[in-house]
Amino acid sequence: MHPQLTALQGLDELDRLLAASDERPLLLFKHSHTCGVSAEALDELVSHLDGKPANVDYAMVTVQTHRDVSNAVTEKLGIRHETPQALLIRDGRVVWSASHFRVTATAVVDAIKAQS
């Protein structure tokens, strides 16, 4: 896993990052380790991270191993569950989202720039 990408393993970590999104945006990636499309989307996210990204926190939840966290994301943010799914969160709300083949390095960069 990329060093800038935090693996969310608990609800307390999720709550902390959502609260911190008041100060610094959060890009949350929901990943399925059994889905080829999700693997491609993760590669796109890592490509973005390798390009020296903006001042954003990055986190990932793997739905098979941390279902409670994945479900909490859906409930707390009022979004429909999809994998792969990228969510840009600011002030505790989703300001941009993409799923499946729409999760690209370029789309992430554009979304972050639009929120700056």
Radius of gyration based on Cα positions? 13 Å
Helical run tally:
4
Strand % is 15-25%
Question: How many strands in all?
Answer: 5
SSE string, helix = H, strand = E?
EHEHEHEEH
The CATH architecture can be given as 3-Layer(aba) Sandwich
Uncertain parts: none
CATH superfamily, please?
Answer: Glutaredoxin
Q: Major sheet: order of its strands?
A: 1-3-2-4-5
Largest sheet: 5 strands, mixed
* Class by alpha and beta content: alpha/beta
Give the distance, in angstroms, between the N- and C-terminal Cα atoms: 26 Å
- The CATH topology assignment is Glutaredoxin
- Based on CA inertia axes, which overall geometry fits? globular
CATH top level class name: Alpha Beta
Q: For the residues shown, what is the average pLDDT? A: 95
Total individual domains: 1
- Proportion in helices: 40-55%
